[in-house]
Here is the input.
Amino acid sequence: MSQKRKSGQAVIEYILLLSMVVGIMVAFLRTLNGSFDKAVPRMGGTIERQLRTGAASAGVWRK
Here is the structure.
């Protein structure tokens, strides 16, 4: 095999590897985003209940 063909093969392998990594990251981020979409309202509801019932003072949630 000539040096030019080996160089071309390395570029193709790099592009394939990069596309696989990007695809995995996109799938992971979509899953993570779905988890946040479910968790944030739940946490907000907990904070609201604590504030309404007096289980926690309003000062606890301020910075």
The longest helix spans residues 3-53.
